[in-house]
Amino acid sequence: MSGLKPGEVNLGTSIMAVEFAHGVIIGADSRTTTGSYIANRVTDKLTEVHDTIYCCRSGSAADTQAVADIVHYYLQMYSVQNGKPTVPLAASLFQELCYQNKDNLSAGIIVGGWDKENGGSVWNVPLGGSLHRQPFAIGGSGSTYIYGYCDATYRDGMNQEECIEFVKNSLALAMSRDGSSGGVIRMAIITEKGVERIFVPGDKLPVHWEG
Amino acid sequence: MVIHAQPGWKSRISLRLAPSSKASSASSASVLDTSNSYGLHDTMRFGMRQIASEVSSKHPLENRLAEWDNTQMELKMNMARNMYGMHAPIKMAMERSLVIQARGPSMLPQRSNLGLDILAGKDESIDFEDYLNVPEMSTDMVDVHVVMERQIGIRA
């Protein structure tokens, strides 16, 4: 992504989040690159900002970590006085930080989580710092290769298993086409009960047409 | 910032994470800053003319580093304001100003301000200023009058 400063570490990335009846499924690849060197091939791009609120990070690794840290801190302080924060609140915080610092940041973030008022919700905060609630969201450099696939495959009202397959297949396709995405697929299922992590190793990835 | 999570109802409080690379005011000194009534550099008041400050441009990092602590403090104040209300940063600023003023004339200026360090959280960290250029090791001659004047503010 061209917004990086020289020497900065790129999160490359394919990230995705899908809402379903009881919560959200979030997923990401695991590749972090500095130029063409893969600095980390097992990165965890799914970052917790609260018990049942996670964010998927794409763009500059440093920028997204800094922003996620501040939101995490902010939500901790908030929850002491006001109880559990809602997902739109967390997304709103990300949006404020990304917009007000837009000249310095290169961060595309997808916020996904569960809260009592809204159930599961997915909020996309792309590069400029806008905020969009969507039934599913894709992001990162690899997402450009799967817009068609996702639009053709997504249906309203999928259950948890179908959503997991949707995320897994989409990310696998993105990872096979995008040079800056790869490694393993990390997913998280976020519901009222909490967070369950799923790990799909590199040799178990779904395989699309490979010629 | 919103405790209600409705998009469209936002405060305008700045949440800058890091200072910008450009200095807010002019980055290099101009002759006008030190000019006398003839328009030339006033050597009597300001010392010899320093070409370096007029010609050299600053490194982009220079302003970031100079403004770093201030920016972080302001971010904390703004977050506290959003979270707890106006009273929180006002109290924090009040404590800071009390501690800065608390230096008595008996205390040499070289001693670091413990109260300020505690408020900033620096008492729990070790940074380069704790082992480099430590005030206790300084060999400067101290003119108590000059120091006092600086403290009160009648001298630069």
Protein model, in words:
The complex is a heterodimer of chains A (211) and B (156). Chain A is of the alpha+beta class. Chain A has four helices and twelve strands; from the N terminus they run ββββββααββββααββ. By secondary structure, chain B is mostly helical. The relative contact order of chain B is 0.09. The radius of gyration of chain B is 21 Å and the shape is extended. The two termini of chain B are 40 Å apart. The longest helix of chain B is centred in the middle third of the chain and has 25 residues, at 60-84. Chain A binds chain B through residues 66-67, 70, 74, 77-78, 81-82, 86, 88-89, 91-93, 95-97, 100-101, 103-105, 131, and chain B through 1-3, 5, 7, 10, 14-18, 20, 75, 79, 83-84. Chain B: This is Proteasome maturation factor UMP1.
Compute the separation of the termini of chain A in Å: 28 Å
User: What is the number of independent domains of chain A?
Assistant: 1
Order of helices and strands of chain B: HHHHHH
Radius of gyration of chain B: 21 Å
State the helix count of chain B: 6
Contiguous runs where pLDDT drops below 50 for at least 5 residues of chain B: 1-10
Strand content of chain A: 25-35%
Mean pLDDT of chain B: 77
What oligomerization state is this entry in? Answer: heterodimer
The structure class of chain A reads alpha+beta
The secondary structure category of chain B is mainly alpha
Q: Got a strand count of chain A? A: 12
Report the sheet with the most strands of chain B, covering strand number, pairing sense and barrel closure.
none
User: How far apart lie the N and C ends of chain B?
Assistant: 40 Å
Helix residue percentage of chain A? 25-40%
Overall morphology of chain A = globular
In spatial order, strands of the major sheet of chain A run 10-1-2-11-12
CATH superfamily of chain A: Aminohydrolase, N-terminal nucleophile (Ntn) domain
* N-to-C SSE string of chain A, H for helix and E for strand: EEEEEEHHEEEEHHEE
